[in-house]
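Aim 2 progress update. The chain analyzed this quarter is reproduced below.
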Amino acid sequence: MERAFGSYRVGAATITKIPELALDGVDPTLLYPDYDPAAGADEARRLGPGSVDRHTGLLRQSIHAWLVTTPDRVILVDTGSGNDKERPGLAVLHHLNEPFLERLEAAGVRADDVDLVLLTHIHADHVGWNTSWTGEHWVPTFPNARHVFSARERAYNAALAAATGSDMDLRAEAGLGPMARLPLPGVYEDSVVPIVEAGLAREITVDGSQAEEGFFFLPSPGHSIDHASIGFRSEGEYALFWGDVLHHPLQIARPDWNSAYCEFPQAATASRHWALNHAAETGALVLTTHFAETSAGRVRRDGNAFSWQFV
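Predicted structure tokens:
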């Protein structure tokens, strides 16, 4: 498994981070409702300045997509937040104007080149570039791409948008325990519905099976109702796109800390423990969505705990 500048080689594939936003002043007490300042400060001392501002104690995070290129396919894993989106409930994502597509082109890929878009879950900062604003309506940004995502996740967001009360049945069916929050409103309507209407959606059951050649959607619910981490295998090598099971390296040592954005906290905690165990047991190259620095690394078991090393 080789690394070129800004990219990682996994079997026959090259994986490259496409940045969208750098979040350099995140208050850990707001990100983690159960944050313990003393424990957090102790763990922060083990992290580099690329993850924690040593002077202020504020966290550094990132929002980005992962580009996977193989000899015959161009794939995006998640699509960031998108431009021009109405997100008044989350100011950092409201009416963005970021050169994401230009950064994608700098990596050698135009929007029309993308064959597959794989979505870990339907949250604002993971599906935003699915669509672009024409001045009149939202249209698919990647018009030649099949967009693959959880059928349950889509159905739940559709039920919430319809406001018929059927979302309660879907929550009961999922059996994830108490709900702490709902997804941000408007995301499904502007970033998923246009994909479905264009005939570009493929809804799947998240059960660990191979959804597309080399890609496996692994159940890790809790952050959202049917969140998936995505495993990728090529020529005997393995990479793992974590999605939002963890948001910052602090959680490597404190997997009991859920983020403020986790919808079903009990299930999110269980999935976080699973993700750490799976990464350590498989030796996977882990590609995160919100860690800063390289955003990629490996998990190692240290007795009953885990450690993280950026690569």
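The radius of gyration is 18 Å. The chain is about 25% helix and 30% strand. These observations will guide the mutagenesis experiments scheduled for the next reporting period.
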